[in-house]
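=== RUN LOG ===
request id: a7f3
mode: sequence -> structure
chains: 1
length: 435
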Amino acid sequence: MGRKRKNKICDKVSHEKEDRISQLPEPLILEILYHLSTKDVVRTSALSTKWRNHWRSVPGLDLDLDAVSDSYMDDFASFGDRFFYPHKVSWIHKFRLKNIHVPYGEFNLPIWIDAVTSRRIQYLDVDYYGHDNVPLSIYTCKTLVHLRLCCASLPNAVVSLPCLKILHLEYVRWRNETTLHKLISGTPVLEDLILIRSPNNFNAHVLQLSSHTLKRIDIDMDESPTQVVIDAPQLQCLRTKVYAAKSFKIINSKFPSKLDIDLRSALFYPTENVIHNILDDISRVRDLVISSNTWKEFFFCSRQFLNLSRLNVRFDISDLEMLSTILESCTKLESLTLEIIKDQSMRSHKEKREPNVMFSAVPECLESSLKFVELKRSIPSYEGEMELIRYFLKNSKILEKLRLNVYYTYKAKCAFLTEVVAIPRCSSTCKVLVL
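=== RESULT ===
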């Protein structure tokens, strides 16, 4: 009897928990479901009768065709036709359709897009495979805030997107230079522009990006035109890869405070020309992310980073000898993330050369500004690792956190932790976190 009574109590507790979830305010439930894929949202209809129709009221449709087998593709197309016919949906705010591996002509995708853009759609994300242009209704949607298109062809037409703030174009084709210009000029509040590997199929010599509202630009175009010119007075963040010495020019800008840049041309062009063709005054950068094959060019061209407060840099292990020079250049540095990677020039273990990290003096930033340091490595530990940790702990006067993202076996990690804990710290408030 005791066991049966215990089971009843457990059932009652489980039932109460289920009721608590079901009794959440419906707007809150719909907001939670809005951030899930449609497949997962529909699955909630099996929870109880109260949840059976919740999915029909979620203001978003997030579909991934990788989750649809070929045998159900016709059913999927029929579902979409019924869902969007004709402009039946008036409440949808998000439409996301990913991984279309069949010709979109087998779907009525243009009709689906016309249906959502004629209503209150705010977020549109579509893999639009095919050679036909995207529907013109995308160009005149009055409520669209976020637009991502992949593998699409853009028509050359009048654009009016008064609310669009984020534009993400990936593997997108446009016929001529004016197509992209019209798209950007027709978005008067655009803040984020992402161009990923868009093929240069119109043989343009100059790609002009001009906007008075753009704050963040991300460009990765390995088939880039001869020159990219950015005219964006409000630019705050630039992330890009540069493939040619004269491929980039920033004009009419106070210069972005955050720069994430990867020079792919350093082996073929004079390094100083590469930097000076991109930046007029790099010393104004406050947040800098640079790759292992780029940092040397920056620090050789500009020895003083007077305003730099955050630095995220990747080093080959042999480059650690230059760390003291970098820290001496960054007099106001507050945050340092240093990732140690494998030196590609090391062909064998016999050729491995441990870095000789020596500091003749304590850099100014360690005494007055450095508050956060993260050391990461994706290689086996090196002999100078503990000395580097000891240096930061013993000389950083206002350091608040040292994060060590390292990899050890359990036994070796215990020994490592013991040694780290024993190191005296110059800052009494410093916390050490080992991941």
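=== NOTES ===
Residues 8-16, 266-270, 346-351 have pLDDT under 50 and may be disordered.
The longest strand covers residues 310-316.
=== END ===
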